[in-house]
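Quick one, T. Sequence first:
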Amino acid sequence: MRLEGRVALVAGASRGIGEAIVRLFADEGARVVFCARREELGRAIERELREGGREVRFVQADVTDEQTVKNLMTTTKELYGGLDILVTCAGIAPAAPIESMELAAWKELMNVNVDSMFLLTKHAIPLLRESEQAAIVTLGSTFGHVGAGGSAGYAVTKAAAINFAKSAALELAGDGIRVNSLCPGGTATEFLQEWFDSTGDAAGTEKWLMEAHPLGRLGTPEDQAKAVLFLVSDDASFVTGHGLLVDGGYTAQ
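Structure tokens:
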């Protein structure tokens, strides 16, 4: 029960890594508010976990909208009295070569992946300052560390997530707020499958990605959730400004 008594907010959590984080945090004793645009999926997770005795609340929210984010912070404080942990998982991953990518698609990527991270962090800071165990985790990627031909837009947003965490860590250290970034390798989620499909050769892309990981497999959402648990727990009390690679050796080559 490493998070007993703590309040967590997880954004982009109706499936995949975000959902796994919500489930693990709840199992570890946290009271969890989680949000996503997909209300039906979020309500189903909320119902299941609450029936199992977990203290979770789902809020349907578009976290690219500033007023919605402000309301989300107000709701979290009203429900649980404060905030100790923020995890920003909201994201999309359309694949397109630079030459053929439409400006509208580029702007949507920046809005969903980067603007939401900024807004959530900005408006969580006043609540996190009141916590003695405050931690933020942004969602980076191996593609934030290395090039990603055919997915330059996505890679840019993940590099932003990593550097945003480093910069925020310096800015907020005096407030006792730790900020780190999780950098997953290929992880078997619906999100990744959508990316496979968007490349025009889903089977070939999946085969390439699995072979690119020295451990010979894709990660699981649970692999990533356990790494986030470490980053927000007391076990990482001296860790801030770090981009934690959980990538099966992908970037070690």
